[in-house]
Design goal:
- The chain has 703 residues and is an alpha/beta fold.
- It is built from twelve helices and 54 strands.
- Helix 7 runs antiparallel to helix 12.
- The two termini are 83 Å apart.
- The relative contact order is 0.05.
Length: 703
């Protein structure tokens, strides 16, 4: 007889647990109550109910789920007939393979229940030869954890839980999943058709088997995996795809073979084209030293040696200034589809001769003595010779204003309300006080700047402004030209109608009907020319003003032809393109101190002395202040570097740079505002060593 001890919080729970473990009904066991459940100390402590259950002897083994409905045939005692009866009444659910399970079950019924001494295997579970065995104990029940890729069936029902309690009263079948993957591969070609790559992920077959486990009260089923790689990619498969992609050139046969034999995922370059070899744009070979960006040499933090100013060597008449080299064309390449791939187009450098310059063959030659000056915008360069005016004293009422087409050197100071304008550099050995200084080159004020307006690189600023004014003129003139071409092609138009009188009558009609605002655009351009005529080095801007005014603003009887109108439009296209080119600035402002002034420069601005106070500064290059920045607004297109920024008197101090630049401050006072791109930040407390820029989230960050 089989007996167990069962426990529970209540007597009924202890009995139900025992019945479940013995897999019998209450009529088939003798129940002996060993201990009733009790509760003491208001339920804080309690004793479990304990019962001893002894299974009654029966003539045949009949599980509970095998009971038949009323009217069934009499009980069968033959083992094989009993097995058929059990199978018939089982529900149809997820199950192990029926044939193997049925054979195993029949074999299990013929085996004796005990295969080992009870004292060694009681309460344990184990795996042997791919099968699960277990033996219950009155005090402990074996537990099994089911891993991934394993299915455990209990009495042909799939176990859904990850961990279960097992009993020898149930039959268990374990199956393991096998896995098979096909080879994955893909051919990719880059957009330039210069490279073809083959990605391969080999297929495989994964075979799994259940590992034997020694008897234990708790086990986790283990699986042994055997992976066999099966790369089904063939050389023919690859070549067929390459043929479909029309790849005809640059095959790497060894890489194709390696890809078909690989057992690991990888990327293989199976064909490459020939990249074009880039050429070289035209360039200038400067024959003399033309570096005009050197200012006074700094001795220490607050002192400079003005005797050590870099001087630009003068040239003599007939001296070669530069040699112009033509572009070197590149070599074309070839795609994997055997198509030619042209090299990037090279551009010649266009050289224009200014005052005192002649261009003979490929040489730039000075025709008069003086300082050579170069203005370069991308592939366009203009040379000129600057003469020099030296003023021995102060610029005041006794000397009058100074306007000179060259360099100006002033040995004294520039006094109140005086003006100095130069096409070259302006050097002032003393201070600039309440004056106006305009230069197309550099401005150097050794004694500082007080309450003055300083403009350096005026020619560059004028060209930029004129380019903005030309843009709408260019747009409307193209539309006018298109309308005229449409009229010429129309059936009612006779070329002879305008061959004698020109396009003037037609232009007047178009201006009255379609382009009433066009004359005002030309007038705006004309105003800019008149205001800044003294600062324009190239006469082409003035000449365009005269052409546009004569055709569209006056009632001139001059004949205007279609070819003439197209020529003006072509010239405007070139001028506008020139105005948009980045400037290689030779303009800068250097001074030790600046107070209550306005500084505008297309290049760098450097305040190398003690301070900049209540001043507005715009630098097209980099702004550097070696001392303190107290109040005012400053901007540096290529960044700002300041030693100390802000004022204890809460005077507003504003520093800004574009979104792609940064602000560096050694010490910043509370209340100072910075702006990077469109983002602003005000310091609520003083800080040291600040570097501000925009991060990837377009927010100001500090390093």
């Amino acid at each position: 007889m089989q007996s167990i001890i069962s426990k529970g919080k209540t007597l009924q729970e202890a009995i139900d647990t025992g019945l479940y473990l013995l897999n019998v009904s209450r009529d088939e066991v003798n129940i002996e109550v060993i201990q009733q459940e009790t509760k003491v100390f208001f339920g804080l402590k309690s004793k479990e109910a304990v019962v001893k259950m002894t299974k009654q002897l029966s003539h045949a083994f009949t599980p509970a789920y095998e009971k038949k409905a009323e009217g069934d045939v009499k009980e069968k005692t033959d083992a094989f007939q009993l097995l058929d009866q059990m199978i018939d009444v089982l529900p149809e659910i997820d199950r192990a393979p029926a044939d193997s399970l049925q054979d195993t079950w029949k074999a299990e019924l013929k085996k004796p229940l005990e295969q080992a001494p009870p004292n060694e295997l009681a309460g344990k579970v184990w795996v042997q030869n791919g099968r699960l065995f277990c033996q219950s104990s009155p005090n402990k029940y074996p537990v099994v954890t089911i891993p991934e890729h394993v299915k455990l069936f209990r009495n042909r029902e799939l176990v859904q839980e990850d961990t279960i309690i097992v009993s020898e009263q149930d039959f268990y079948e374990v199956t393991v999943a096998e896995e098979e993957r096909d080879t994955v591969w893909e051919v990719k070609m880059d957009h330039n058709k210069l490279k073809v790559e083959l990605y391969v992920k080999p297929g495989y077959r994964m075979t799994r088997s259940l590992v034997d486990i020694e008897p234990d009260s708790r086990i986790k089923l283990k699986v042994d995996e055997q992976k066999k790689v099966n790369n089904t990619l063939s050389y023919t498969d690859v070549m067929q795809v390459l043929e479909e992609r029309r790849v005809k050139h640059g095959f790497h046969q060894a890489e194709i073979v390696r890809a078909t034999e690989t057992e690991e995922s990888g990327l293989f370059t199976i064909a490459t084209g020939i990249e074009p070899i880039p050429g070289q744009d035209g360039w200038l070979d400067i024959q003399i030293d033309m570096d005009s960006k050197k200012g006074p040499r700094e001795i220490d933090h607050n002192r400079v040696d003005y005797r050590e100013i870099k001087s630009i060597p003068n040239v003599e008449s007939g001296q070669v200034i530069a040699v112009v080299h033509p572009p070197i064309p590149g070599q074309p390449g070839r795609t994997v589809t055997n198509e030619p791939l042209p090299a990037k187009q090279t551009h010649p450098i266009a050289v224009r001769a200014g005052k005192g310059i002649a261009i003979i063959e490929n040489k730039v030659i000075a025709t008069e003595p003086g300082r050579p000056h170069l203005e370069q915008r991308n592939h366009i360069a203009k040379f000129s010779i600057m003469s020099k005016l030296t003023h021995p004293g102060n610029v005041d009422l006794s000397s009058g204003n100074i306007r000179f087409k060259g360099d100006v050197e002033i040995m004294g100071e520039i006094s109140e309300r005086m003006k100095v304008e130069a096409e070259g550099d302006v050097m002032v050995h003393q201070s600039i006080n309440r004056a106006h200084v305009t230069s197309n080159g550099a401005v150097i004020a050794n004694g500082g700047i007080v309450a003055s307006d300083i403009s350096s690189g005026k020619n560059n600023m004028m060209i930029t402004e004129l380019g903005i004014a030309l843009e709408p003129i260019q747009f409307d003139l193209k539309r006018i030209n298109q309308l005229i071409n449409q009229l010429i092609l129309s059936p009612g138009f006779k070329a002879s109608d305008f061959s004698r009188s020109g396009l003037q009558p037609l232009l007047h009609i178009l201006l009255e009907k379609k382009f009433k605002h066009f004359p005002s655009l030309i007038k705006k351009y004309k105003e800019i020319i008149e205001q800044g005529e003294a600062y324009l080095i190239d006469p082409v801007w003035r000449e365009m003003d005269e052409k546009l005014s004569r055709i569209f603003l006056t009632l001139s009887n001059d004949i205007v032809s279609i070819e003439q109108l197209k020529g003006i439009l072509s010239q405007i296209d070139e001028m506008y393109e020139y105005s948009q080119l980045p400037v290689e600035p030779n303009s800068y402002i250097h001074t030790p101190n600046v107070l209550s002034s306005r500084l505008f420069c297309s290049g760098d601005v450097k305040i190398f002395g003690k301070s900049s106070v209540n001043t507005k500064i715009h630098a097209g290059g980099k702004l550097e202040i070696s001392g303190a920045l107290r109040g005012g607004e400053v901007f540096g297109r290529m960044g700002v570097k300041v030693k100390e920024a802000g004022a204890e008197s809460n005077t507003p101090t504003f520093i800004s740079v574009p979104a792609d630049q940064q602000i560096q401050i050694d010490y910043v006072l509370e209340g100072t505002t910075i702006k990077v791109g469109t983002r602003k930040y005000m310091f609520s407390e003083s800080r040291r060593y600040v570097t501000a820029s925009l991060n990837h989230q377009n927010q100001i960050s500090f390093v």
